[in-house]
């Protein structure tokens, strides 16, 4: 079971996550994730990946995010706010298209992301 992390540590992870995406360096992003990480997003099936919307493991994340980065040459996240719990951070940001998104990131004892969920507005 995950231990409690300091709020400042989780907030720093959230800022690092945004910075990593803004470099468009996929390996830098993946370095924040555990090998067995699970990611859920409604965009996963839209890009031709698992119809359940859930991917498991870094290899699957690398394939999905690699394809997404290729389709989004202007990808950029602008941090709006961060919300923390003892073992997670929610990153609230706006993407390059003006869409606001909340990304839930749960971490393990080592501070690596083990579960992620991209949450978009329903419209």
UniProtKB/TrEMBL annotation:
<dbReference type="Pfam" id="PF12680">
    <property type="entry name" value="SnoaL_2"/>
</dbReference>
<feature type="domain" description="SnoaL-like">
    <location>
        <begin position="15"/>
        <end position="113"/>
    </location>
</feature>
<dbReference type="InterPro" id="IPR037401">
    <property type="entry name" value="SnoaL-like"/>
</dbReference>
<dbReference type="InterPro" id="IPR032710">
    <property type="entry name" value="NTF2-like_dom_sf"/>
</dbReference>
<protein>
    <submittedName>
        <fullName>DUF4440 domain-containing protein</fullName>
    </submittedName>
</protein>
């Amino acid at each position: 079971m995950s231990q409690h992390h300091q709020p400042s540590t989780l907030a720093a992870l959230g800022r690092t996550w945004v910075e990593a995406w803004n470099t468009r360096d996929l390996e830098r992003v993946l370095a924040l994730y555990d090998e067995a990480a699970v990611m859920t997003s409604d965009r996963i099936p839209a890009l031709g990946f698992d119809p359940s919307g859930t991917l498991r493991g870094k290899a699957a994340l690398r394939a999905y995010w690699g394809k997404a980065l290729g389709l989004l040459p202007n990808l950029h996240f602008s941090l709006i706010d961060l919300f923390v719990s003892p073992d997670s951070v929610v990153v609230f940001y706006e993407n390059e298209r003006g869409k606001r998104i909340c990304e839930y990131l749960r971490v393990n004892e080592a501070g690596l992301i083990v579960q992620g969920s991209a949450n978009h507005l329903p419209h």
